[in-house]
Amino acid sequence: MSNPTFNLGNHRYELVQQDLNWADAAAMAQAQGGHLAGLGSEEENAAVFQAVTALLKGRAAPTAADGGAAAYLWLGGSDQGAGAEWHWQDGSAFDYNNWGYGPWGQEPDNFTDPTLAPDGQHRAALALEAWPKGDGALGSAAQWNDLSQHDKLWSLIEYDTPHHVLKGTAAAELIDTDPRAHSTVDGGAGADTVRVHFTQDSYLFSQDAKGMHLVGNDADLDLSNVERIRFDDVAVAYDVGGDATGGQAYRLYQAAFDREPDAGGLGFWMATLDKGHSLTEVAQSFVTSPEFINANGADLAPEEFIVKMYANVLHRAPDGGGLDFWKGIMAAGHSQAEVLAAFSQSPENQAQVAAVIGQGFTYTPYE
């Protein structure tokens, strides 16, 4: 069974679900290119504990008899060796600590017992619950305790991960990202797609004024000026606004055929718009398509066409003023394609379709 991982900033953490003493846990971490976790701030401690708690839901981690029978994870802290002060596995001193405390005293206390801790307590561990178990008189969950190095516990390995800063150009681009890193991507102008490794459900997705953010087990990404994301299992378009080509293609499909677009066709027409073809050009392909003609009829009179547009796009009959307006537009020489494009981009239709695509929509990329 593979160990679960999570990313925080430029660090990846692996929750090792093997019962190991501290020395074996530290050796495993080093052999895998990391080190037992060192927590350098209150913010990091809180974020790590929150992530670990989520991963451990429904799993029972081993307990330490000399730690009040509570469950713990090995950290990289020790007070043995050079200087005999508390330091991390890489030799750096503690700049921050979160030792447990309570009515019974303060950790670390170097408790020594012939059976439970014959050579004292000289290794740091992250508590997953209060201790002693049942009353918490010495410490709480997320605090640290010093334990016997012989305890068999699960551990937390920390890896330093690279941080890539990627900048797009004015063109529409496919930007690949590192599956084991923190990536900051500014797509620039154009309809840019970021290639994200692993499946969509491998990431927690959020969006704010700065852009889109994905946090996964092995990688996390901060995206700005990026319109689309391509996961291993699905492609999602977030360019849904009025002038964005993704939203334009989706709305035109819905307007012309009064149905949800098929993913492959949608991807093709998105690519067509991305290449610089106008919405009216695409609309012309739609109104001359067999599907449109079979559904609406051929050689429609202007009024017949306008009534169809109201029904297909706005799902209502035209009001008198609206009907006269569009009849005037067509009498002035504007084509069916131009009217279809205008209906699809109308504020009324944009508001209707926003309820469906406002959080993005899936499509099949055309290459």
UniProtKB/TrEMBL annotation:
The family database entries (SMART domains) matched by this protein are listed as: CLECT
Domain (C-type lectin) ranges: 8-131
Q: Do you know which Gene3D superfamilies this protein is assigned to? A: Mannose-Binding Protein A, subunit A, Phycobilisome linker domain
Q: Which PANTHER family match?
A: MANNOSE, PHOSPHOLIPASE, LECTIN RECEPTOR RELATED
Species this chain originates from: Rugamonas rubra
Name by which UniProt lists this protein: C-type lectin domain-containing protein
The cross-references to PROSITE patterns, in alphabetical order and at most eight, read: C_TYPE_LECTIN_2
